[in-house]
Design goal:
100 residues, 3 strands, alpha/beta, 3-stranded parallel β-sheet, 31% helix
């Protein structure tokens, strides 16, 4: 259960910010206490919008213009949309809930 907890949400980057925006919506619906969003690279206008949606925002490399996140990486394998949605809707396990 993540309700009432602080969540650190990490994305590979934010060109449009839609992935992070959707994930923040899911987390808010699950009533987390605080959201910290961390991305290595993001487009400046997207940074401004996302920063208003979360409690804390960290970006290592803000850029005035970012066409595609994959352009910031040497290797960037694709993630299937179905897999991404499944992961977003899966209740994460906390360290004390992991089977040993």
């Amino acid at each position: 259960m993540i309700a009432g907890r602080t969540v650190v949400l990490v994305d590979d980057g934010a060109a449009s910010g839609m992935t992070a925006h959707t994930a923040v919506g899911v987390l808010r619906a699950r009533q987390v206490r605080r959201i910290v969003l961390a991305v290595p690279v993001a487009q400046a206008p997207v940074l401004d919008r996302l920063a208003r949606e979360v409690d804390q925002f960290v970006c290592l490399r803000p850029l005035p213009w970012l066409h595609a996140v994959r352009n910031s990486y040497r290797k960037f394998p694709a993630v299937d949309g179905t897999e991404a949605l499944e992961l977003l809707h899966r209740e994460p396990r906390l360290p004390d809930e992991v089977r040993r």
